[in-house]
Amino acid sequence: MTSTTQVLGLSGSQINHFQDTFKLSYHLNYLEVCQQFVPLRGLDVLEVGGALPASLVIDHLGCNSWTAVEAPAYDQELGAANQFHRNSEDQQHQKKHAESYQHLYLDIEAIPEDHYGQYDLIFSIACFEHIHRLPQALRVMHQCLRPGGRLFTMHSPIWSAFDGHHLPIERPLRFRQATEEQNWIYKPWEHLLLTRSQAFDVMKARFDSTFAEEVIYYTHNSDHINRYFSEDYLMVFEASPFEIDQYQLTFQVQTPSQTQEELQKRYPGYSQFSNNGVLTILKKTAQIVIF
Question: Under 8 Å CB-to-CB from 88, ≥6 apart: which residues?
Fold first, then answer.
């Protein structure tokens, strides 16, 4: 992964400004990765699952337009952690670029049809693991692109990763003085290796029954994540209207051999548990007109 000291042609002070002012972290690195595959300058871009600041994508990167789409339920669940795009400084830039920058609160599946065929690139980071109706969402995204347009996604952690539970909760303050056992909520891959009842018993012993209930809810019931394995993403991408241009397993870690064996036994047909995420570029094939 590219160091944040070398991304997007930004100086050190500019990097600090965007990170501190807009709470950006991995966003800059992921944008740099996208730039290496699809240069952004002059493009009409649809961002799915986020809202990068206009001062970055219009003023600095030179995109022709930027439309950000965020699911209302996810935005509400994240709360203040997802509010960097409401920064007062960037609101000034949004007004400045009112004709080229817009921010929509809706599920991508519900985007109005007047957005169809309007974009050169769909940019989506840390999002696809949250989309439940992913096949339908991909069909709509395909409609939004012009012929020859691309979809770039980097998303992690996915369900099959060592931390794929993606818990949006942290250890409660009443466990501030954590024991060694409490340094973990889930140990690596434990969310996959334990049944619901086993996980509840483990969390109850590790913490208490109140926190165990919260952990079980977010692990097994919350719609915060879609619980797709690596192989599921590839299946959905192959079945979509897109052509796969790039497909890479990202952020690899070593899966202990015994853990790998247990996981494959528990989940027949699945074997990719070492990657934390997926990088994919999908292409909308240009239409061929025959006279």
Answer: none
Q: In what order do the strands lie in the sheet with 275-283?
A: 101-105, 65-70, 44-48, 119-125, 145-155, 275-283, 243-252
CA gap 59, 40 in Å, rounded: 12
pTM: 0.91
pLDDT digits (tens, 9 = 90+) for 36-70: 999 999 999 999 999 999 999 999 999 999 999 99
pLDDT score recorded for residue 51 = 93
**C-alpha Rg value of the chain to the nearest Å:** 20
Burial 195-207 (b: 16+ CB within 10 A, else e): eeeebbebbbebb
**Which secondary-structure segment (H or E) carries 119?**
strand 119-125
Return the SS3 of 213. helix
Cα separations (Å) of 184 from 68, 86, 248, 253? Answer: 35, 33, 29, 18
